[in-house]
Design brief:
By secondary structure, the protein is of the alpha/beta class. It contains seven helices and five strands; from the N terminus they run αβαβαβαβαβαα.
C-alpha cells in the first residue's frame, strides 16, 4: 500500500507500535507515529478529524475495532476501510464503524486501495530489475 500511495503522490502517515516495522518504515522515510493505533493519543496525534480516509490493517481484531471506533468518533465522515480474517472480525469491525471490510492477503491491499481510489490501484511489487543500478 505504501508503494502505491507514494507513486500516486498521496499524503499518508502510519501508526505503528512494532519495533522492527518502525525501524523499516523510518529507514524508508515514511512519516510514522510510534504508538498503538487503539491508543486515543495516537488517534489525536494522527489528526483523524482532518483525515479523509483510514486504512486499518491491525492483526488484533479487538485493537482494530478500538481504532475504528475512536477514528469514527473523531471524524464521523471519515471513510474507514479495514481488513479482517474471519466473519466474527468482520462483524466486530462493522459494529465499531468500519465502512468496508476486506478479507484475504493481496485482496486486502487491492480492495482497500480500490475502494479508495478505484480500479486504477496497482499494487504489484516494484520490478526488481528497474531498481538495480548498472555496474
Amino acid at each position: 500500500m505504501i508503494d502505491y500511495l507514494r507513486r500516486a503522490e498521496l499524503p499518508f502517515l502510519v501508526i505503528e507500535d512494532r519495533a522492527k516495522a518502525l525501524k523499516r518504515l523510518r529507514a524508508d522515510g515514511v512519516e510514522v507515529i510510534a504508538a498503538n493505533a487503539a491508543d486515543p493519543e495516537a488517534i489525536a496525534a494522527a489528526n483523524m478529524a482532518g483525515a479523509r480516509r483510514l486504512f486499518v490493517a491491525i492483526d488484533n481484531a479487538f485493537e482494530a475495532g478500538q481504532a475504528v471506533e475512536q477514528a469514527r468518533a473523531a471524524n464521523p465522515s471519515l471513510e474507514i476501510i479495514a481488513r479482517a480474517f474471519s466473519s466474527d472480525e468482520i462483524d466486530h469491525l462493522k459494529l465499531h464503524g468500519a465502512d468496508r471490510i476486506v478479507v484475504g492477503t493481496e485482496a486486502i491491499a487491492q480492495g482497500m486501495l480500490g475502494s479508495a481510489f478505484g480500479n486504477q490501484a496497482d499494487i504489484r511489487p516494484p520490478d526488481p530489475a528497474s531498481s538495480q543500478t548498472a555496474r
